[in-house]
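## Example record

The block below lists the input lines for one assembly entry, exactly as stored, with component labels intact.
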Amino acid sequence: MKISEIQRLLDAEVLCGGESLENEVSSACCSDMMSDVLAYVKDQGVLLTGLLNTQVIRTAAMMDMVCIVMVRGKMPTAEMVALAKESGIVMMHTKLRAYEACGRLYHAGLGRGEV
Amino acid sequence: MTEPLRFHYDVDGENFSSAGEASVALKQNLRKLGYSPEVIRKVSIAMYEGEINMVIHANGGVADVEITDDRITIILADKGPGIADVELAMQEGFSTARDNIRALGFGAGMGLPNMKKYTDDMKIDTEVGVGTTITMVVLL
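Predicted structure tokens for the full assembly:
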């Protein structure tokens, strides 16, 4: 699935990385616990989260993720957006809650990948 | 045998927001050196977990990375409180992190087990009241 399709499905606003929207991703994960993302995630390109701090971006960068979706209308700070941009990560935010955001993506065929 | 490459990083314990900067810097260095994505990810995650631990528990510390022909060795040293029961600390889900740390997305008790999982060897030298030194090896 293209990242632009994620944006459309979630009615999301892109905050940085707009030049990478045509890149493809094949799976996603959702967590507010970065410890668990580091422990359980494998090759998921998209992180959906409601957690709002710079460690979200560093975690995604360590896991080679390419897109972060902030759910529940959370607006990242300028520092977070700058860090995502520097890391080459697309960051967007959606008003949807995590459950619905995940449901829409899963329903549209974005899998959960290898666990 | 070529001369080992060495990197040194100071991990600032005062600022949670900057935690992980050393791991990002190391990751960039490993990329420049042309290591495989798999090796880079293993080293980066182990180092990042260790860095977060040093910030959460030990008010920072130092990280030394040594690269030789066949391995990457990461040594994380702090002068924190030490680990009273290493076996217990290695159990998944065990954490002494306070709720304020959990609110930041960490302290799930996965840090040390994760560091072991992503590395080929891990050794913990610790003394209560003195500090902890963790040595991790990723084979190339």
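Residues 5-139 of chain B form a domain with the Heat Shock Protein 90 fold (CATH 3.30.565.10). Chain B has one domain: 5-139.
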